[in-house]
Design a protein that fits this description.
Elements lengths: L4 E2 L1 H13 L4 E6 L5 E8 L4 H7 L6 E11 L2 E11 L6 H17 L5 E5 L7 H9 L2
Parallel strand pairs: 1-3, 5-6
Antiparallel strand pairs: 2-3, 2-4, 4-5
């Protein structure tokens, strides 16, 4: 592990998404001093396309999206954790996000599916739908 800690605000915001359905998605980033995972942004209502568009093109992020999908048994929904590390990110940044992810994942109880992505094709609605449906 990288020694990066998780700010308590991240957990509070995650609980509001999970229990109160206050947000459609939340994003977290590593602080500028590289010591803490902090809240970055959220949206109370957002389409999946809006969420994908909010992912930075050149910087890593962690995100949780409240993903709705259809099954033969009717509508379902799952909390999906994203480890977003674009190819164009700085190498040091990629390594720090990769080594810090578990600190955040351990704290976020109730995540159904995890998506690791390095480009936008890996977060397409079809790819994520396949992942959530196969579990």
């Amino acid at each position: 592990s990288s020694g990066v800690s998780v700010d308590s605000e991240c957990l509070n915001i995650f609980q509001e998404l999970k229990l109160k359905k206050k947000y459609k998605y939340v994003m977290f980033k590593i602080s500028d001093d590289l010591s803490t995972i902090v809240f970055d942004k959220s949206a109370e209502t957002a389409s999946y396309d809006d969420f994908v568009a909010a992912l930075p093109a050149n910087e890593p992020r962690y995100a949780i999206y409240d993903f709705d999908y259809e099954t033969a048994d009717g509508p379902r929904n799952k909390l999906v954790f994203y480890s977003w590390t674009p190819e164009s990110s700085k190498v040091r940044s990629k390594m720090l996000y990769a080594s810090s992810k578990e600190a955040l994942r351990r704290e976020l109880v109730g995540i159904g599916t995890e998506v690791q992505a390095t480009d936008f094709s890996e977060v397409s609605v079809e790819v994520v739908q396949d992942k959530v449906s196969s579990r």
